[in-house]
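Morning - adenosine-3'-5'-diphosphate inputs below, output right after.
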Amino acid sequence: MEESEPYEDLINPLPTVPFGGSPPPLHQYKGFWFRKQTIQGLLATHDHFVPLPTDVLLCSFQKTGTTWLKSLLFSIINRHLKDSLLSINPHFLIPSLELTMYTDGKPQSPLFIEKTSSSCRILSTHLPYQLLPPSVKDSDCKIVYITRNPKDFIVSFWHFMVSNKHHHPVSLEEAVDGICTGVLPGGPYFNHVLGYWKERLEGPSKRVFFLTYEDLKRNTAGHVRRLGEFLGCPFGVDDENEVDEIVRICSFDTMRNVEVNKDEKLLGAMGKSISLVPFSLKSLFRKGEVGDHENYLSQEMIECIDKVAKEKLSGSGLNLG
Ligand code: A3P
């Protein structure tokens, strides 16, 4: 007898659309589009994850600066361990709820997290605020959200899809269509951003730290200090060297040149959980610039994204450029 897939009774009846002209399709779950594996992870997270009040949750849409922010949060909280980033990929130091901790529809054994000695757990998720487990929404854990100019995001996303052997490639036109219609993995992009933005404005004060890739680029050291304060581990006036060292270790140039981040053959040394990570770590460090969309998007594509951004973000007080 064939073994049933996790949560198949819930997932099979969901509306489904193809994405990028080849399988697997996207399924619509409570207003958002996901691959089947993500919904399995989401549902398992809802069923099993127990947040601690001291947890720090890094939330983001994919390709908006997650890897960079993981490095920064890890080294801000575990200052004495920041050199770990020179030998371990940030995704192994900070696991994702739905992609690594509860993948396959069930809890997985911990990754590298047990090797850190921080006073709090740092976890990440690409889930929208609207679909975080109620246990997380009701907890005191802190949320750090990063977002990005939607045009740079879509260019980064498209490169990721075409360069990654674990994904079926999509054309740039299909990717742009996805951000404009909302139908792309994890989308609608703007609903994701607005969920966290609304919580930042209306939720308990000091619960959500909301930042953009562009602001982080403009003043990385300033944000390292602000994040330290937000997380309850502030830097003193004399800690300038410490802050600069964190900025340096987490910088694009340092991270891209770390052996383990650039050579896929070394990944085998990172532990048995590698098979659970559905992407190549190498492809996470591409260009690391603001405004790269100008090199790829036609005027028509730019106008389409700008129009949707204006409509969606109107009245929110948020401008993503
Ligand atoms: P580009 O494709 O524009 O270069 P994520 O980590 O959410 O997948 O986001 C990936 C994007 O962040 C990629 O953008 C990647 O190059 C960039 N990135 C990764 N590490 C970075 C770092 N240390 N500093 C700045 N940008 C970084």
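Note: Confidence is low (pLDDT under 50) at residues 266-278.

O.
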